[in-house]
Amino acid sequence: MAMLRAGPAHGARPTPNPLVRASASTSSPWRRITSMLSISSITRCKSNDRSLSLRHPLPRCCLSLRGSCKPYLAMPRGNILSQFTRAVDTRNGMLTLILSEYEEVLRCLSSLITKRTRGDGANRGDQFDLMFDYLKILDLEDAISRLKVIHVAGTKGKGSTCTFTESILRSCGFRTGLFTSPHLIDIRERFRLDGVEICEDKFLDNFWWCWNRLKEKTGDHLQMPSYFRFLTLLAFKIFSAEQVEVAIMEVGLGGKYDATNVVREPIVCGITSLGYDHMEILGNTLGKIAGEKAGIFKKGVPAYTAPQPEEAMTVLVDKASRLSISLQVVSPLDPGQLGTQHLGLNGEHQYINASLAIALSSTWLKTTGNSKGINLDQDNLPEQFIRGLSRASLEGRAQIVPDSFAQQLNSNIGDLTFFLDGAHSPESLEMCAKWFSHVIRVDSLNSENQALKNNYIRKGGHPNSLGKEYLPILLFNCMSVRDPQLLLPRLVNTCSHLGVKFHKALFVPNQSVYNKVSFDAAAPPADAHQSDLSWQLTLQRVWENLVRSEQDPGETSEYGGSLVFPSLPLAIKWLRESALQNRSTQFQVLVTGSLHLVGDVLRLIRK
């Protein structure tokens, strides 16, 4: 006879998770699942609001289900096994299958990703007014009107500007909410409370709160919101539930029709540097792109912008004038204003982003009446502002990460460092090239001075303190909607002008996929050599043509060629093996072209 025990385990929350509340106190759902699995008897069953585990003696299998099984109760017999995302053998030889509630949420989110290509003209607008229907279903209309929002659009530097702004206001003592995109590893990175990504429990509770209500009220007459729209609605729900004092909202794409633009009365708006990106949606001129970005301007709401090309600035000023806005242009921050401190985000372009963040923060403080005790003198930055700017952090932007694998083996064997920057437009790749060239030249000079101090003999190249030579390598991929003929020359030429030439270039497909949300590195194809590498081969051809055109006749080159790898793990493996086999060389790998690629690399090197 089956022995079933149900109900909250010790320490479980008194309010059950929405997914399992329907039958947590009865045996029927668990009996239904055991029937699907052809389990005739159960010797133990435990459940709470986050997990369920079953053990039965017949095939000596242990089944662990974290979260609810309710969505799978109506599935045909046997299909439930296909829902498990990983299987591991336990030490006692019993097979354990695990399905987490978090993975279930990610599958739900993946179902919202539209199948249309980004270049599909139907993406424009896309029934923007539906966002207000979704807000009504979720009863978030009044909650949004009470949020004190800072709204930021732009092509380059949106995430950095929002990060600086959040850090400044948090340093001033306010409870902050920050919504940015995309995420690199975990989707919870998009939702930050007081500078920290939302914890899993709060994320799950708020997700199901939104998901269940929308599922109940949508159907043929009103479809579920698309992926980014749902995430934006979720951000508003989280920030209102957590009662943040300021909500910093980064536009996802464009501005006028972006999901974040349901905010009718933000406190202040900002436009970061504009450039050519998402042209298939926003338009193929800077004027058209600027017009979309200026769509976040609201009548009477103060607005600031970074310096812009004339064509873009003309459009921004005209839009602001028609809304009775005095659009103000910020100047790059003088590093001297930071005193002995430095910006928390690297790169000379960050001084513009920091200056815009200062303007947005100052205006928010004054407009909301929260400037008391904060010296907003024009000549000197308040101490809280300096602290916020210096402590700001944002992964995947001008980030340096030594490879932990080589360090674990032996700190003196195999020197491999990754320089990560998610630049993916011509302008941002130029900034990335300047940053990379600067940091490796400074590193080289510092190491060379140390080497001479320690009486090491220079034998060519750029030795560091252990007599090593530096080898810059490019690890690159970009989305197929982008033009490598515009991206790669900007990167290569800028590096070359600054004295840096890549020894080798590696081209790889991304691990993550665009139509699935995951929190773990996606496994490479079962047969990686069967991967479609046509795009990577195209990138390689563009690269090789570029390198040949840059090389002077008769010039002796140390260029080592380019490689296409069928998967990112194989490329990382090759780099690690090369570092171990060339112990006198420091491999400096610039990872750029795609934030997806940067996130995938971070996943792999941290595993």
From TrEMBL:
Record: residues binding ATP: 397, 421
Keyword Metal-binding included in the entry's annotation: yes
Keywords per UniProt: ATP-binding, Ligase, Magnesium, Metal-binding, Nucleotide-binding, One-carbon metabolism
GO MF annotations in UniProt: ATP binding; metal ion binding; tetrahydrofolylpolyglutamate synthase activity
Region listing for Disordered, in residue ranges: 1-26
Highest taxon listed in the record's lineage: Eukaryota
Pathway linked to the protein: Cofactor biosynthesis; tetrahydrofolylpolyglutamate biosynthesis
Enzyme class: ligase
Catalyzed chemical reaction(s): (6S)-5,6,7,8-tetrahydrofolyl-(gamma-L-Glu)(n) + L-glutamate + ATP = (6S)-5,6,7,8-tetrahydrofolyl-(gamma-L-Glu)(n+1) + ADP + phosphate + H(+)
This protein's GO CC annotations: cytosol; mitochondrion
Cofactor(s) the record lists: a monovalent cation
Enzyme Commission number(s) of this protein: 6.3.2.17
Pfam families hit by this protein: Mur_ligase_M
Role noted for this protein: Catalyzes conversion of folates to polyglutamate derivatives allowing concentration of folate compounds in the cell and the intracellular retention of these cofactors, which are important substrates for most of the folate-dependent enzymes that are involved in one-carbon transfer reactions involved in purine, pyrimidine and amino acid synthesis.
Family assignment from sequence similarity: Belongs to the folylpolyglutamate synthase family.
Protein name per Swiss-Prot or TrEMBL: Folylpolyglutamate synthase
Organism the protein comes from: Zingiber officinale (Ginger)
